[in-house]
Design brief:
alpha/beta; 193 residues; 6-stranded parallel β-sheet; Rossmann fold; single chain
């Protein structure tokens, strides 16, 4: 499993959970090779999985790069997704790698359906929105909707808990969900995954 944004706010938690699974390999990747290796080293201390860390920028990943790493699954935790396209998902499909992201941006999540036929031909999954919003909130809605007389509209928003320190991408996503596009300049590009 290759986790992009693998030492960030959400990707780090994904990598931590996967590290508990024996018999798999987890590669935590982000723009900073040093931060990725340091994070992987901390995880490896109590891990049941094989853990490593590498420097890898999601914007530079091609099918060839993935062919060299050979992950079975790539988990994209490099939000915010509002400004992203599907180059990474397409690279995964071309390399025969399953793609999964934690997107919460409606247009990004629904737009990935355009890759469905291509992914099916390649024998891989291309899944978007595998996060609290929309996946878990959608499952709750599916479970309770039949009990309602009618349902016209649902608005769902997520906010970080008090003990959670979001990174820049997470903060942009949260603030963007308030109805206005949010752009912040990056003070230290190596600081965030």
């Amino acid at each position: 499993m290759l986790v992009l944004g693998g030492y960030g706010a959400f990707g780090g938690r994904v990598a931590e959970r996967l590290a508990r699974v024996a018999g798999i390999e987890v590669v935590a990747a982000g723009r900073s090779p040093e931060q990725a290796r340091n994070f992987a080293s901390r995880l490896a201390a109590g891990a049941r999985a094989k853990i490593s860390g590498i420097g890898l920028d999601a914007a530079d990943i091609s099918a060839g790069v993935l062919g060299g790493i050979k992950p079975a699954v790539l988990i994209n935790a490099t939000g915010p997704y509002q400004g992203q396209d599907y180059r990474l998902a397409r690279a995964c499909i071309a390399a025969g790698v399953h793609y999964l992201d934690l997107a919460d941006a409606r247009s990004f999540v629904t737009g990935i359906a355009a890759l469905d036929a291509e992914a099916r031909r390649a024998g891989v999954l291309a899944v978007s929105g595998a996060s609290t919003v929309p996946a878990v909130s959608g499952a709750v809605l599916d479970a309770y909707a039949p009990q309602l007389a009618s349902l016209g509209k649902v608005n769902v928003i997520i906010a970080p808990a008090n003990s959670f320190e979001p990174g820049l991408a997470t903060a942009q996503s949260f603030l963007g969900s308030l109805g206005r596009h949010f752009v912040a300049s990056r003070l230290d590009a190596g600081e965030h995954s």
